[in-house]
Amino acid sequence: MSKFKETINSGKPVLVDFFAEWCGPCQTMTPVLQKLAGEMGDSVKIIKVDIDKNPGASKAFNVRGVPTFIIFKDGKPVWRASGAQPKSELEKALRAAGV
Asked: Which pTM was predicted?
């Protein structure tokens, strides 16, 4: 968990995708996140956290369903949404977080 804390405290906005391998909507988000990462470059960090392999992280942030997206700025959650999200919504939320 310390690497996770280090990442979300990195100074730039971090979009965390809490997902599960067995989750269909989670799998549909992978190309969306890859495209978003390509367009936004180094101004944002996008990481994926498998809730089955990292139950502590999902419990710490009260993740009850997947996919759940949380944007962290300076280590604090500033935006959250559950369920598949359109790229435009994720982009808007990241811009609001200072990307």
From this structure: 0.94
48 is catalytic: no
Domains belonging to the chain, first-starting first, are 1-9+16-70 (3.40.30.10)
Over residues 80-98, the pLDDT tens digits come to: 999 999 999 999 999 999 8
No. of helices (H) and no. of strands (E), the chain: 4, 4
Q: For the CA atoms of the chain, what is the radius of gyration?
A: 12
To the query of whether residue 26 is one of the catalytic residues in this protein, the response is yes
From the CB of residue 71, how many other CB atoms can be counted at a distance below 10 Å?
A: 24
Tokens of residue 20, six digits: 């599960």
Element (DSSP H or E) covering residue 60: helix 55-60
Q: Catalytic one among 26, 29, 36, 97?
A: 26
